[in-house]
Amino acid sequence: MTRVLLLITDLEIGGTPSVVRELAIRLRALGGFEIHVACLASAGPVATQLLAEGIPVTAFEARRSSDLWVVRELADLIERRSIEIVFSFLIHANTIAALASFMANRVRFIQSIQTTQPRPRWHWRLQRLVHRRAEVVVVPSESVADVAQRWSRVPREKIRVISNAIDVADYASITPAPPAKGQPYPIGFIGRLDPIKCVPDLVEAVLYLGGSVHLHIFGDGPERRAIEAAAQRFGVERLVTLHGAVGRPQEALSRIGLLALPSRAEGFGLVLIEAMAARVPVVATDVPGIRNVVKHNETGLLVPSGDARALALAIDQLIRDSQLRATLVEHARQDVERRFAWSSVIQQYRALLERPPEPL
Question: What angle (nearest 5°) sits at the alpha carbon of residue 271, between those of residues 247 and 55?
Fold first, then answer.
């Protein structure tokens, strides 16, 4: 039995915490792995989900990124649980794991980078140092591999591209919400309300669509007030509803007929494959990470980042052209089954974790 610790910054609702949750559950189901999950911050909703699955979780309760006492706490946990592999996700967890590696002999350390977001730049400078304590750096897309090489100087031979994944069957029963007769078409955004997601661009697109759509925003975060201000500025308050965070993406996907993701950058865009599996058509920006997931005019529509008019035109095209919509939806679901299903992706993780350790 190989004892594996999955370490992440927090376990709030979000793309990377969801990846960690599913990876923990599916590695345990394979057999041969004893899984423990830890987060630097307080326990969040994903911690509750993991505990419900019988997976032990440790929350270190750090309040600031400067709380380096967590390094000793992590080292103690590794020793107490006889951990053999520490697999960390995101820069803060990668850094704490790298520091703890000096106290944990004969433990394998693997890191994961999940973003192509260029700022803050110090994240990438710090990653340039800490990757040296990992035998492998896992990324979800070729776009992340490229920036990890350029901005953090991670050697290409040290990088492993393993796509994020979903269980397609979990989305089989969803029927995208059709518009009620005479009502605006329900479009949606699902994700953390962060400036990098550019949700105000989507609010502006609602203005250009002239009342033909209603935008449902599922998620929470620091950009909420800016989104509300944009809705007021463009005069579309009655066509924009902020629902707050949802526990499961299926809850949101069942209430919309189209998903839009207007981000400036993504490491992958997990919500895209969730929508594609649910047969919800997608419109997104042609930026790193997203373009590794969505194939323009084949599995979705891609538009330039920061162009609200182009976003509105693509949404309008999909709403009006039912044949195009049906074609994209069918191709998208097939592509998810082929490239992003856990049934195949989990075997890549198994091979990584079971192989002999490589020298640092």
Answer: 50
Residues 186/256, Cβ–Cβ less than 8 Å: yes
Whether residue 360 is contained in a domain is answered as no
| Side-chain half-sphere exposure of 51, counting CA atoms within 13 A | 11
Q: For the domain that residue 152 is a member of, what is the CATH number? A: 3.40.50.2000
In a domain, 129, yes or no: yes
* pLDDT tens digit sequence for 23-63: 999 999 999 999 999 999 999 999 999 999 999 999 999 98
Within 8 A by CB and 6+ apart from 176, the residues are 253, 254, 256, 257, 258, 278, 279, 280, 281
Dihedral pair phi/psi, residue 215, rounded to 5°: -95, 125
Contact 240, 206 (CB under 8 A): yes
Q: How far apart are CA 156 and CA 236, in angstroms?
A: 47
> Domain range holding 269?
168-339
Sign of CA dihedral 246, 164, 11, 148: negative
- Of 344, 171, 317, 199, the closest CA to residue 258 belongs to 317
SS3 labels along 187-217: EEEECCCCHHHCHHHHHHHHHHCCCCEEEEE
Tell whether the torsion through CA atoms of 198, 199, 204 and 210 is positive or negative.
positive
Tell me: pLDDT of 359 over 60. Answer: no
Instruction: State how many domains the chain has.
Output: 2
Residue at 359 is within a domain = no
Q: Are residues 219 and 94 in the same domain?
A: no
